[in-house]
Amino acid sequence: MQRHLGQASTTGATAGWYAPLYRRRGTPDPIGGAATLPALNRRHAPRWLGLLAFALLTLPTQPLPAQVHAPALPEATRARLDQAVDTVMARYTLPGIAVGVIEHGQVVYTRTVGERIAGSGQAIDARTLFKIASNSKAMTTALLGRLVDQGKLRWDDPVTKYLPQFQMHDPWVTANMRVADLLTHSSGLPLGGGDLMLWPEPNAFTAADIIHGLRYIAPAYSFRSRYEYDNLLYVVAGAVAAAAGGAPYATLMRREVFAPLGLDRCQVGSWNRDAVGDVAQPHYLKDGRNIPLGEDGAVIPALTSDPAGGIRCDLTDMLQWARNWLVPSHAQLQWLSPVQRDVLQAPHMLIPVSTQRRLRDDTHVMAYGYGWRMADVDGRWMVWHTGTLSGMYSMLALFPDQQGGFVFMINGNGGAAREVLGDVLTKHFTKPADTHDAAWYADALDQANARRVAAAKAPTETPTAVPAGEVAAWTGIYRDPWLGEMSICPQGEAVRLAVVKSPRLAGPIMRLGGRLLVHWADSGVYPDAWLDFQAATGSAPITLRMAKVDPLADFSSDYEDLHFQRIGACPAPTSTSQH
Fold this sequence. Notes:
Elements: H1 19-22, H2 47-57, H3 75-91, E1 96-103, E2 106-114, E3 130-131, H4 136-149, H5 171-176, H6 207-213, H7 232-245, H8 249-261, E4 271-272, H9 273-276, E5 283-286, E6 289-292, E7 299-300, H10 306-309, E8 312-313, H11 315-326, H12 330-335, H13 338-344, E9 349-351, H14 355-361, E10 366-368, E11 373-377, E12 380-389, E13 392-399, E14 404-410, H15 415-430, H16 438-456, E15 464-465, E16 476-480, E17 484-491, E18 494-499, E19 506-512, E20 515-518, E21 529-534, E22 543-548, E23 564-568
Antiparallel strand pairs: 1-2, 1-14, 3-8, 4-7, 5-6, 9-10, 10-11, 11-12, 12-13, 13-14, 15-19, 16-17, 16-23, 17-18, 18-19, 19-20, 20-21, 21-22, 22-23
């Protein structure tokens, strides 16, 4: 979930909510070289960024107050937090959750509820590993910041310096794409563009496949002109880190981030489930029951998505990670310099502020840094990110001026739960007198979602099977430039669609309201996709476009970016005989 910036003073008095835009109070000015707020003042940046940089550079700052020990959490506050956790657990039928809160740099509240695997009796505790999903991005940017501190990388370096094979759709963008541009969601890629090469997992796409496939994804807007979230360029950033650091991404992450910070339980790359132990599994909700989704095998493989969203951590390590940003020790400031810390959490690309967020949180400005979102909430400065994978949700939020924050991780269908609990915990820091409880936020969210669903007019009917003969004209082998080959071929009495390199993208062709769709056989894959065929004309082959049946589904199901052409006939069925 995303949040905002508080209102600036019109009197020109002391620095207020806007001061952290430039630097955290008490840290050195980032002067000179590639460390100076790189995306705010470069010649190709939009004009508003330069104006924002000028304003920020002239603001006064105040020293950071000395660290104080957090007072004991009042019993009434603890009870309110417990009630919020209990409410989201019950209302959204979650299998499990782990929550932690930091005040004045100290952990003042932790709570773990539920099971690693529903029905197993294996309780979640502070050492239970969760997929942190896109909260991995901030760890990737911290790794890059380490390489900048070590002189192995510059934020302004062209991506092609490290990956000569890298190409975007536009040659000019290829030539001008800097390492920094990989991190700000302003590349021109459509929202979630190419994510079908990452998810659903497992699949056979490699980082090399993604780097090659990017050249075929048409831009949705001009380079550096606006914010549209993507994941693929963080995979590219991981490959840049590997090239600059001289070791695989997972090796660098363990050596340069996990080990120095004492994140002893965090995992990336390939690891042994049983040797590590205490691992939560994702779930989906069906008929009111939590069903494990794609349970881990004995060996967890390295994932292409690791730099964008593949890291797993427990609550203890996530709280340690958060405190590193809020109250860094001398050793942690040696691990990553104050200059690079500010660069990572400075605003580099504005994010539009919704009317709802403006009214609810008094937000004026929201921005993206390098792996972090940031905004003013009720006049308080907030830096945060969320993580979303099928059956796993997370949120980490920092309030640097208060040396506070929170983190929680869910191993179920927790999108709404994350929004509600995130609101309650955010208001704990930004508006402590707020009396709205989790149930109030949940009711408000239900009302908003009902309006969105009604406006989207997604179909509610059940699709029906289509006999093979009715779609015989469309059968064959198809190819998309970046997703690769897909078959639409008879299988018994039906016709089945199957993507070669993504085996979970497979299912029968069905009909709904006069349109054809593919209904994914794997219950963990959502949403289904409309199939719109275009007949061959002259020398042009049959083509196929796809779209989400549920228009409100996650943007990573980017069917709309696919452009399939029929390249051949289905293979002849093989006959078998018994002797």
